[in-house]
Design brief:
With about 425 residues, the protein is of the alpha+beta class. It has three domains: about 140 residues, Alpha-Beta Plaits (2-Layer Sandwich); about 140 residues, Sulfite Reductase Hemoprotein, domain 1, CATH 3.30.413.10; about 80 residues, Alpha-Beta Plaits. The chain is built from 15 helices and 20 strands. The strands form seven sheets. It has a five-stranded mixed beta sheet with strand order 9-10-11-17-20. It has a four-stranded antiparallel beta sheet with strand order 2-6-8-7, with helices on both faces. A hairpin with a 4-residue loop joins strand 14 and strand 15. Helix 2 packs antiparallel against helix 3. The N and C termini lie far apart (about 75 Å).
């Protein structure tokens, strides 16, 4: 039994709303942990004074330059911590398995380690994907890491370094997956661990891997290099699933929720006898007389129709990934999404994944050499120009590179024909 929890009237207010509160979880842990009792006390003080009382420092494990987030209290009286059991409250960042796959035994073993060495407070997962083991004294950091390491886990990134990567659950259970997300993650991260464990970059650098344009790990907005699954042939169709959906939901719902919601008007409801024919056309029967006609040349892979009609529409068979660079909501220039630098890359063979790793390595190296201190990749590109960045990493300008659908930032309109001719010549050569 831990020491008595002090009165926390301001924190208690956070438990009165309609949604579950983190305060409830902290109080539950505080029943058996003095560190959590004192954490509640310091947090209550911060709410009262509207001040934060944590400072950083230097805490790590043997052989590593990052992965531990130090926190020391500044809330003191007569030079002694007001809440001594929470005077040190460090966080260990631990790399998760690709796709966030865990067994119940593994989760229990992790919890036991942290109850033994830390506060018991765990967050699945941080913004970079780390398992956040929060609340540990300096003396217990190394023993805790040693036990996690014996279980097969490693520290994640912190500071000006390569950060822990994330991938969606992908091919393990999602029919929208267009490549092996877990393999891509492990290929890139395992070959670049030195940049994670020994911080030497101008600022942080993040990879994220999404198996399809639904982008469930938010790679396009939250990573310096985003690998997002896509396809380059026609959407696959299944009449049985389409008819079942219409039977259940009705033709009006089909028009309002699918046809009318297509951002490029690539979907039409037609009589089956009047449906168009051609290489870029997909059709799926919705009843005995009508079908949906999809103009794949105008499809921008927004995924809306595939999500609304599960099983009836699926990604094409010629699958791969698009590579985007420079995403992040940065303070200097506002929110930025990644800019597409490789419209399509096959990810099937070992050679394909090695090419992905080589591209990742070239981007990290260019970033390390050319970015300013505390500058993310997107900010660097904005400062030096997209064309200079492409030249630096060895990619030729391609008219298929876009910043957003149907918006090409690389060419002026007055010499478009000449540039397209140059590109066609390069492709032919």
């Amino acid at each position: 039994m831990a020491k008595k929890i002090q009165a926390t009237p301001m924190l208690d207010q956070l438990e009165t709303g309609p949604w579950p509160s983190f305060v409830t979880g902290l109080k539950r842990l505080a029943k058996d942990n003095d560190m959590m009792v004192d954490l509640l006390g310091q947090l209550e003080t911060s709410y009262e004074t509207k001040k934060g009382y944590w400072k950083g420092g230097t805490v790590g494990v043997f052989g590593y330059g990052g992965g531990v987030i130090p926190r020391f209290t500044e809330l003191k009286k007569d030079d002694k911590p007001v809440y001594p059991d929470a005077a040190e409250f460090h966080t260990l960042r631990i790399q998760p398995p690709a796709g966030m796959h865990y067994t119940s035994k593994l989760l229990r073993d992790m919890s036991n380690v942290w109850e033994k060495h830390g506060s018991g407070l765990i967050a699945f997962h941080g913004q970079s994907g780390d398992i956040m083991f929060q609340g540990c004294t300096t003396a217990n950091v190394q023993p805790a890491f040693d036990e996690f390491n014996e279980m097969g886990f490693d520290l994640g990134g912190a500071g000006p370094a390569l950060r822990t990567s994330m991938s969606c659950v992908g091919a393990a259970r999602c029919e929208m997956s267009c490549y092996d997300e877990a393999k891509a993650l492990r290929t890139v991260i395992n070959n670049n661990l030195d940049d994670m464990h020994r911080p030497a970059l101008p600022y942080k650098f993040k990879f994220k891997f999404s198996g399809c344009p639904n982008d469930c790990v938010n790679a396009i907005q939250r990573s310096d290099m985003a690998t997002i699954g896509t396809w380059r042939d026609n959407i696959q169709t299944n009449d049985v699933h389409a008819k079942a959906w219409v039977t259940k939901n009705g033709m009006e719902a089909l028009v309002n929720q699918v046809v009318a919601m297509c951002p490029t008007k690539a979907i039409s409801l037609k009589k089956t006898a009047d449906a168009s024919k051609g290489d870029g056309i997909s059709t799926v029967a919705v009843n005995d007389t009508h079908c949906l006609e999809i103009d794949n040349h105008n499809c921008v892979r927004c995924m809306h129709c595939l999500n609304v009609l599960p099983g009836a529409l699926l990604p094409g068979k010629d699958r791969g990934a698009s590579i985007l660079v420079g995403g992040k909501g940065v303070l200097k220039i506002g929110a930025t999404m990644g800019t597409m630098v490789i419209p399509f890359m096959k990810l099937e063979s070992e050679e394909d994944y090695e090419k992905l790793n080589e591209l990742a390595r070239s981007i990290i190296d260019f970033f390390a050499e050319n970015a300013l201190e505390h500058e993310r990749t997107g900010e660097m590109i904005d400062r030096i120009g997209l064309v200079n960045f492409l030249d630096g990493i060895g990619l030729e300008v391609d008219p298929n590179m876009i910043r957003e659908p149907r918006n090409n930032p690389y060419f002026r309109g007055d010499d478009w024909d000449a540039e397209v001719e140059k590109w066609n010549e390069r492709q032919a050569g």
